[in-house]
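Task: sequence in, structure out. Protein: Xylan alpha-1,2-glucuronidase.
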Amino acid sequence: MKNLLFAFLITFFLLPNLQAKDGYQLWLSYEKIEESKLREEVNQLFSGIYFFAKNPTYDIIKEEFTRSAEGFLDQKANFLSTRDGDFKLLVGTRSELSQYLGLSQQAEIKNLGEEGYWRGPLEINGKKIYIITGNSPIGVLYGSFDFLKSIQIGEFDSNAENSDQPKVQLRMLNHWDNLDRTVERGYAGFSIWDWHKLPGYIDPRYIDYARANASLGINAVSLTNVNANAWILREDFIEKVKVLADLFRPYGIKVYLTARFSAPIEMGNLETADPLDSDVRAFWKESVQMIYQHIPDFGGFLVKANSEGQPGPHEYGRNHAEGANMLAEALAPFGGNVIWRAFVYSHEIDEDRHKQANLEFEPLDGKFLENVIIQVKNGAIDFQPREPFHPLFGAVDETNLGMEFQITQEYLGQATQLVYLGPMWEEILNTKTYRPRPSSTVASIIDGSDSGQELTLMAGVSNIGTDRNWTGHLFGQANWYAFGKMAWNPYQDAESIASEWIKLTFGQEKTLLSSIQNIMMKSHEAAVNYMTPLGLHHLMGRSHHYGPGPWVEGGRADWTSLYYHKADNQGIGFDRTFSGSNALGQYAPEIVKEWSDPNQIPEKYLLWFHHIPWDFQMKSGKTLWEEMAFHYDSGVKTALEMKENWQKLEGQLDEERFHHVNQLLSVQIEEARWWRNACLLYFQTFSGKPFPDEIEKPQGDLEYYKSLRFPFAPGIKPNW
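Result:
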């Protein structure tokens, strides 16, 4: 009965979407093939498809072929019931196709691992046949999506062999979704998980969500907010999760949940959550056993502990390793993992927030169990528009480390701004750490090639919600796409990923491709310029994080802007060198040597590590004040240029998506000016210097900008 329900769902919900181009289909629209040679070639392949076995994953592939054949060719795919037919396309695992594969070819495919795939031509009985294969049905699924993508972007070559395998083991979306369907820091509507209606009602979005992720190779999803709710351990909630786990399994996706460390008290009626207490350990083992009875391939727990008020082992005098290992021991018999976040800081500790994760985790190196991975943000503060890489990468060598990127744009204009994040992630991943090897990069640590770790992870905080186009801003889809591609292979470059996404989303017309790619590749640097240039950071408004707030003070120091920019009449910036907090000392000596010198450090990180006089001469010959003003103004000018270039595309794009983006680009320009005006007017009160003649002068009054309030800003419950 369950398999019949699943077959019905994928058949019904994968039918061609006949609605307008509103973005719902993401990068899987399968537009009609216009080029005649390619059309004939694809038509031949789709005229005789044979699957070597039956299973739910192959059912998915069949439905994807059905959908794409109708889109590409406006006709049905022909699935053969016997291999004796005139087959043109064979689909199956290496073992299923072994009679057609030579020993060397089988060895080559075997080396691709469980999720790898091979596709290409093969001569069988004197005929050229195209095959898609892998070592598992999931590998075949990934190969099938790659096959369809190559057709969609016009790059399919029936004579070429193509193979690939993921470089990172766990490629995960972290949803910050609450059980009441609100989404913390989410800007695309409510949570797509309708817990109230589950398990009885299955929203069709769940299937389309799984399709999209599988097409990128994303194989894990944490369903709930890291600011966790203990209720997830109730059995009636696990029955709801089971529905999603069953739907996602044929797509190669495992579900994870966020564990609240105090759950033994809140759900188990215990007086303590001490990880060394025998009753507490028994509580977690019993809870884990119950989960696996319902979900035999449950991935494990994602944990935020002892950070921003969340409970954790410190309350009992225990360290993070003792807390993580308790959960790891409960999960280990079932093959589950603990993903323990390194985002730990406390206002009660009198240390630069930049340093606190390293202070906590470096002394624990080698003390975590093998099924524990420490999830480290790309930078040490909190997903700022630009941060230097987190110093934990390279600082430990006996602990599994994973990357945490933020796909949702908490500090990057939220869903009103077009900011392509691929260049930012590429910048981080390509940065040399100099440890454990002189040539090591962040990417080579994450994928295990230099770190030697066997459990690898790249996680992204989801930007997905109930908006029709999934991500609020249409171009937010590009960030979801880029994350999936870089999680599969952290060495891919952002520009080629952007090009691929544009072709899949808007088509292959060269002028269109060039124009949109130009907009995307400039967008991140533009946002950094009009928000936080030259290493400035944490200048946003309080709580909602919407818009500028460089004046924010009061309450917790590390939640204020003044804590980070430290502007005064002498200069601006956070001294993190030996003469200041010495956070710079947590990096490799090669980095410390270069970055300790304000004349040698890359200027994009200057004010992150140095408190610099307003008259300091920059590489351009301008003073720091002048350079800052030019950067802020340059960001606004680039935003204006982005809209001008977009408007030139009118008539080349469908009206719905054109006007959607066009309106938001107008909003982005106003918000860019708001950032520039508010920040420069505020910092001028310290520099006491005039604005350069060459820039557009900030408009308005500083007190006006300070007076603005945003109770309707999305992403967090408002303080009315």
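Confidence is low (pLDDT under 50) at residues 12-19.
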